[in-house]
Structures are given as C-alpha cells and as structure tokens.
Amino acid sequence: MGGQSVTWLEWAGAGGASVPVLLLLFYALRRAKGIVEMYLKAHLEARAERERRATMVAMAASLPEGGAAARFEAGQPAWLFCKHAEPGHQVIVSREAA
Hints:
Elements: H1 8-11, H2 18-61, E1 68-73, E2 76-86, E3 89-96
Antiparallel strand pairs: 1-2, 2-3
C-alpha cells in the first residue's frame, strides 16, 4: 500500500513531550486571558474615572459667579458644585451631597 495514514497519536508525539506541552500551553493561555481581561477592565475603569473628573472640573469652572450645579448618579444627587464670588477671588467648592 502506497501511503501511510498518520494517527492523531503519532501527530501528537505518541506520548512524548508534545501532549504535555500542548496542555501546558492551553492552560497558560487560559490564565493569560483572565489576566488580560482584568487589566483591560481596570484600565477602562480608570480612564472613565479620569474623564468623569475632567468633566466635573470643566463644569465647575464654567459656572457663573454664584452658580451651582448638582451631579446625579443612579437618580440620586452625588456631588454639589458651588462657585462663590467674593471680592478679590473666586472659590469653587465641590462636596459630596448628603
């Protein structure tokens, strides 16, 4: 007979080092996937928080003298911004709403 068929055992190394290496590689990739997902989640949360803070600072700075604004989270007031105008200087106050 002309051609020999190669079984999956022969292809995988017939019990040699290939099967354990493939299993190790598989589990390493699964672990790396979890680490990459955790890193991306933390990175995206940090980026969203930076954008949120930049928006709050820009909004507070754009208030007119004596103006106030509230920031709501989940339908509840979370922060209150007040821009007080006193002779000689301006103060921006932001505090967590009660």
